[in-house]
Specification:
The structure holds two protein chains of two kinds. Chain A is mainly alpha-helical. Helix content of chain A is 75%, strand content 3%. The two termini of chain A are 33 Å apart. Chain B is globular, with a radius of gyration of 21 Å. The chains are: A mainly alpha, B mainly alpha. Chains A and B meet through α5, α6 and α7 of A and α17, α18 and α20 of B.
Chain lengths: 485, 469
């Protein structure tokens, strides 16, 4: 499979081009084409996962072609244990969110064009191994997302779209400066991430520190790290359900992926210097996210803030700087994508029926919508980390890693964990139990709605009972990261 | 002498065509026909142009100098003119009786720019620039019954007369100092003799003002918005790219090719002017309600980005002229879209619901705007990226930071137009049809912007050979 990665990256775009030439009135044909393209991408990624060699830490399916030799830019892509999970997550959620896009009836053609460009940007970001190519894909994500939120979003969609756009743009231009600076700091000048991972750690500590902060600024906005998180609740809440799924499930991971792909291997000295601060930010995220979620009355906003909280685990595991922490952090990235994606889908199910997301409008749904109640409880339990479901493993490993190096922050974080648990129990009680409202006559989840969530539930259960099914893919990559420290 | 005549064959082709068009206009041929004829002759000139590349170095006793760079710039000017002519064919707002004159002026302006970029003598350069200016004043006020257009012509004339006057004064000082106006003569003189430094700087500043006026650098940018706003759209398109490209080419020829006036203070002044130009352009564009004025100020900002690369010295020139080429195509695209989607004044509100009324037009406009904003993987991104790389490489970190911050600001107002086109909806407005010739222009621009983004190597390679002085 020589060009499989290039195929995976650009196939969604090809689908968009094909759909662009179909008249906008043929919505069913457009849906069908886009859905089959995303299914094909998922299939290709599935094949990639099956043929992935788990024993070697090396980059696999590596492709490299000279692109702009004068400027030292190569088109190079490859996959390793860190990116494999992200690529699978993107393809899976991309396909499922596409299925869940049936509710989109306004300007369907444009919607799917932007959606497909978004997919190419996301897949490219996780697979790129040249800083400029990475940056190009990173930026490609911005504009389609701006449109998806701004056209198909809720009442405050324009505000949310602008805010999302300018927060991330501010981060990414700083990253661009950092990329150019890194290029000139090493000799020979190169944008190749693999070569840079060898050369940049040899630079002196001060330069590393400055460059690290510039990259971290961009990633922190994307993750988002408190206090750069304020775009997230607006964007997540205003975005239509499938786009929220992609936002929470995949987009946030671009930031944490960047930490593992760039910050850690490039700037190990700076990492050791800043580990404490990262741990602090992680635990602040965790507690702040959970507390802020409590203050909300909007179901979707609560889930959005709980994302902030979960990204705190990822950051904490990352800051731990040991193999347990890294493993937990990478696993939590994957799990959070699956679980929160499902949570947003569940919020969407309710919104389609009630046309509101105010918690006070719901109550006693367990007796009216039993199937919904099952999935909601299941995912909420997974989300706060009930042992046996996937959320637990990632959170546990992150905390375990953090206890050995950052015991203070780990302790705070574990106390904060109580708030997360309380939050989800509170949501379940409010929505599913309590006394049913009189006027609620909603149908239970339909077959197609279940079909979208079921794969996510199965993965959650499987990864919870047998975490090694996912951990084995990232094991070697984590060991390589440890070696670099 | 006869060889010299062959060298100016492209210019002669163009100018004879201009005369024919003038006659054709009097004889009452239709405007469309004259436009197509002009286009055919420009294409002919484009094909003749490469033949002149190997003809020798100096012509007309040093008045014209042949180089790969001047050949490239002439090619760019011809391509821009061809696209502007295509747009003009589709443009219906001119008074019906003067098609011949219009194309005569456009082609003559093109010829004068071609002479300007290949000038090897300051007098030749001055004459070419002055011819261009006078034609520009007429073109700007071409909508005779439109007050804005008349104002544009007068304003352009006043500012233009001042700045070319300054340049002429500078040139007279050069003659006083060196006793010659030949570039090679001045270079030889400077290499052997020490010149009183303040006088030299004064001379450089005076000549620089004239060229900066053409390139619309701050503080010589005041005319830009009013002139573009008043000028008819095709003329505004022409002004926004061709004289600007010429201005930058002349800056290279006079200040870089064999560093005549390149004194030690160049870098500092260039940094200051670049920062001012991009910042003033962007901040002024920010609150414009007319898309025409907005694009005018954005073109000032782009002049700033291009000039930033000049601050990086010789190494920046490749980046600068990659930018100039990319800028020409994306700006023609953006101006043309705005012209044919909206009216002469192009208020922002008139773009509401454009994604419905003209889906293809709105899409093309968005692509050009995003390219202007510098969104990867469009060509506009690489233009900024190469400038940024050149700046960091030469240690101009402050300027690099300004470039980056400015490009964020610019994103805001470009995106504002896209927002109006895609987010705001209207129910009643009719569909807008883009004329065929204009559509062809837009497709050419789109393909170039995408191609130069996907494969910047193609141009960069040529440029780095050219600037390997």
């Amino acid at each position: 499979m020589p060009h499989i990665l290039t195929g995976i990256i650009f196939f969604p775009l090809a689908g968009a081009l094909a759909a662009a030439f179909i008249p906008a009135t043929q919505t069913r044909l457009i849906r069908f084409i886009v859905l089959s393209v995303n299914a094909a991408v998922l299939g290709a990624v599935g094949a990639l996962v099956c043929s992935f060699d788990r024993i070697t830490p090396a980059i696999q399916f590596y492709e490299r072609h000279a692109w702009i030799p004068q400027a030292g830019i190569n088109y190079s892509v490859g996959v390793d244990g860190v990116s494999l999970g992200m690529v699978f997550l993107t393809a899976l959620l991309g396909f499922l969110a596409c299925l869940a896009s049936n509710g989109i009836v306004k300007r369907v053609k444009e919607y799917f064009l932007f959606y497909q460009i978004l997919m190419t940007g996301l897949l490219g970001t996780f697979l790129a191994l040249d800083l400029v190519v990475f940056y190009i894909f990173w930026e490609t994500v911005l504009v389609p997302m701006f449109f998806l939120i701004g056209i198909w979003g809720g009442p405050r969609r324009e505000y949310a779209a602008w805010k999302f756009f300018f927060y991330t743009l501010a981060g990414s231009v700083v990253m661009l400066l950092a990329i150019v600076a890194v290029y000139f700091c090493v000799t020979p000048h190169t944008f190749d991430m693999l070569a840079l991972a060898q050369a940049v750690p040899l630079l002196n500590g001060q330069i590393q520190g400055v460059l690290f902060l510039m990259f971290f600024f961009a990633f922190a906005i994307k993750i988002p790290v408190f206090p750069f998180h304020t775009w997230l609740p607006d964007a997540h809440v205003e975005a239509p359900t499938p786009v929220s799924v992609i936002l929470a499930g995949v987009l946030l991971k671009m930031g944490t992926y960047g930490l593992f792909r760039i910050c850690l291997p490039f700037f190990p000295q700076a990492m050791f210097a800043f580990a404490g601060i990262l741990g602090l930010l992680g635990s602040v995220n965790l507690i702040y996210g959970a507390c802020a979620a409590f203050a909300q009355t909007d179901f979707k906003k609560m889930i959005a803030y709980s994302s902030v909280s979960h990204m705190g685990f990822v950051l904490l595991g990352f800051a731990a700087m040991n193999s347990a922490g890294f493993n937990g952090s990478i696993l939590e990235m994957f799990n959070h994508g699956i679980i929160t994606g499902a949570m947003f889908l569940l919020v969407g199910v309710l919104y389609d029926r009630a046309h509101t997301r105010e918690l006070s409008a719901f109550g006693g749904l367990a007796s009216i919508m039993p199937r919904y109640a099952f999935f909601c409880v299941f995912m909420a339990l997974a989300s706060f980390g009930l042992p046996g479901l996937s959320g637990f493993v990632g959170e546990f490993l992150s905390l375990a890693g953090a206890f050995s190096t950052l015991p203070f922050y780990a302790t705070i974080a574990s106390i904060g964990l109580i708030a997360v648990v309380a939050l989800f129990l509170f949501i379940i009680r409010k929505v599913l139990w309590e006394k049913p409202k009189d006027d609620i006559r909603w149908p239970d989840m339909s077959f197609s709605e279940i079909a979208v969530i079921l794969p996510l539930a199965v993965i959650t259960l499987a990864a919870g009972f047998y975490p090694d099914s996912i951990l084995q893919f990232q094991q070697q990559a984590v060991e390589l990261l440890m070696k670099g420290l | 002498m006869s060889a010299s005549i062959y060298y100016i064959l492209p210019e002669l082709t163009l100018f004879s065509c201009a005369i024919l068009l003038l006659v054709g206009g009097v004889l009452g041929f239709r405007r469309q026909f004259l436009g197509v004829m002009a286009f055919i002759f420009i294409m002919l000139a484009i094909f003749i142009l490469p033949l002149t590349l190997d003809m020798g170095n100096t012509f007309f006793s040093g008045m014209l100098v042949n180089s790969a760079f001047s050949c490239l710039m002439k090619w760019l000017i011809l391509v821009i003119t061809a696209l502007v002519v295509l747009i003009s064919i589709g443009y219906s707002w001119f008074e019906s009786d003067d098609g011949g004159e219009y194309y005569f002026f456009v082609l003559s302006a093109s010829v004068s720019m071609m002479f300007a970029v290949s000038a090897g003598n300051l007098m030749m350069l001055y004459l070419a620039v002055e011819t261009l200016s006078i034609i520009s004043y007429i073109l700007a006020s071409y909508l005779k019954k439109d007050l804005y257009s008349t104002e544009a012509g007068l304003k352009y004339f006043l500012f233009g007369a001042l700045s070319t006057g300054l340049m002429l004064y500078g040139i007279s000082l050069v003659y006083g100092l060196f006793g010659t106006l030949d570039f090679s003569g001045i270079g030889a003189f400077l290499a052997t003799t020490r010149i009183h430094e303040p006088t030299l700087i004064l001379t450089a500043v005076l000549i620089f003002s004239g060229l900066a006026f053409k390139a619309s650098l701050v503080p010589f940018h005041m005319w830009v918005a009013d002139v573009y706003e008043g000028a008819p759209w095709p003329v505004a398109v022409f002004f926004a790219v061709a004289p600007k490209a010429t201005g930058f080419a002349l800056l290279v020829n006079v200040f870089f090719a064999s560093p005549y006036f390149l004194t030690s203070s160049w870098s500092g002044v260039a940094v200051l002017i670049a920062i001012l130009t991009m910042t003033v352009g962007n901040l002024s564009a920010f609150h414009q309600n007319s898309v025409k004025r907005l694009l005018a100020f954005s073109s000032v900002a782009h002049a700033g980005y291009i000039f930033a690369a000049f601050a990086a010295g010789l190494t920046g020139l490749t980046a600068a002229f990659y930018y100039v080429i990319v800028y020409a195509f994306m700006n023609i695209g953006a101006f043309t879209c705005a012209a044919f989607l909206s009216s002469e004044r192009a208020e922002l509100e008139s773009f509401k619901g454009m994604s419905r009324r003209a889906p293809v037009g709105a899409f093309l406009f968005s692509v050009f705007l995003l390219s202007l904003a510098g969104l990867p993987p469009l060509a506009g991104f690489f233009a900024k990226f190469f400038v940024l790389t050149a700046l960091v490489d030469s240690g101009h970190l402050v300027l690099a930071a300004f470039l980056v911050v400015n490009s964020i600001v610019a994103f805001f107002y470009y995106l504002k137009i896209i927002k109006v086109m895609y987010f705001d909806e209207t129910s009643t407005d009719p569909k807008i049809k883009i004329p065929l010739f204009v559509f062809i222009t837009l497709i050419i621009c789109l393909l170039t912007v995408v191609f130069l983004g996907a494969w910047p190597q193609s141009v960069i390679e040529t440029l780095s050979i050219i600037f390997n002085f």
